Amino acid sequence: MADARFEAHTIKSHGVKLLRLHMHDWLILVVLAVLYGVLNLIEPFHRFVGEDMMTDLKYPLKGNTVPFWAVPIIAVLLPVVVFIAYYVIRRDVYDLHHAILGILYSMLVTGVITDAIKDGVGRPRPDFFWRCFPDGLAVFDSITKDVRCTGIKSVIREGHKSFPSGHTSWSFAGLGFFSWYMAGKVRAFNRRGHVAKLCIVFLPLLVAALVAVSRVDDYWHHWQDVFAGGLIGLVIASFCYLQFFPAPYHTDGWGPHAYFQVLAESQQPQNGSTSNGLYLNSRPPEIQTVTVHLHNGASE
């Protein structure tokens, strides 16, 4: 049924119109990017860290198994390559545009929320001791007993950004969105029992989970930071995906809402009726007035 209803909507034929329609969405996306940059520059809250609290903060200071720059490549660039490949096959600019816009919103909204919480909470990382005292000689205030860090300021500043995990939230935001996307494209929930399709759906989530595990293994985060980051990213990804696409278990879960809207509008003048089983046509009209003329001239 999906193939029978397919119509090509290319970048050349519908791209400009689509960009004009969503211009405000792209402008807000730029605002989110700027806000995310500002949040990265803000000095986080410096939580009180007493001498007796250092027991759980003396893990080794290590590098990142998954560098920060690698997360956008894994969580955004690779999915976008798949989006483009699907466009080449189906030639549906609505799918391409909404998939890219959706995953970018998923990433940036997640980034803003994550960094705002980081700055507000200021939880020390598991390796905070060695960030604060790189020479191993602890110094505390004689009155308040708070730490008096002697390390590099930028390293100490980063040490107050443990909760929640940014690597984790970004990974689950991008790959969570991609998992939703693939579930729709392979018709994972079409009730035909092809359970092997779930491997395609779960693979992006597995990659995101491995990124999360690496943050604990590198002693950059506590397990609670990773759990919260994954939850934030996955929830935002779900909201962003469902804004543009039907749920994967829906009959028309393979395509974006906009595609079916345009398809219905293009066929309505030809048929004079929209009761041909299209996605939008299954929805009841918001307001419908019906007048029935009886044979005797009365109406009701």
From TrEMBL:
Which GO terms fall under molecular function for this chain's record?
phosphatidate phosphatase activity
Q: Which Gene3D superfamilies match?
A: Phosphatidic acid phosphatase type 2/haloperoxidase
Write out the GO cellular component annotations: membrane
One GO biological process term is:
phospholipid metabolic process
Name where it mostly resides.
membrane
Looking up Pfam families in the UniProt record yields: PAP2
At the top level of its lineage, which domain of life is listed?
A: Eukaryota
Q: Which UniProt keywords apply?
A: Hydrolase, Membrane, Transmembrane, Transmembrane helix
The record gives the membrane topology as: Multi-pass membrane protein
Q: Where found in the cell?
A: Membrane
Membrane spanning residue stretches:
26-46, 66-89, 96-117, 167-183, 195-214, 226-244
Q: The Phosphatidic acid phosphatase type 2/haloperoxidase domain covers which part of the protein?
A: 100-241
Q: Is the Chaperone keyword given for this protein?
A: no
Q: Please indicate if the UniProt record lists Transmembrane helix as a keyword.
A: yes
The record's family statement is:
Belongs to the PA-phosphatase related phosphoesterase family.
This one is known as: Phosphatidic acid phosphatase type 2/haloperoxidase domain-containing protein
* Organism from which the protein derives: Kalanchoe fedtschenkoi (Lavender scallops)
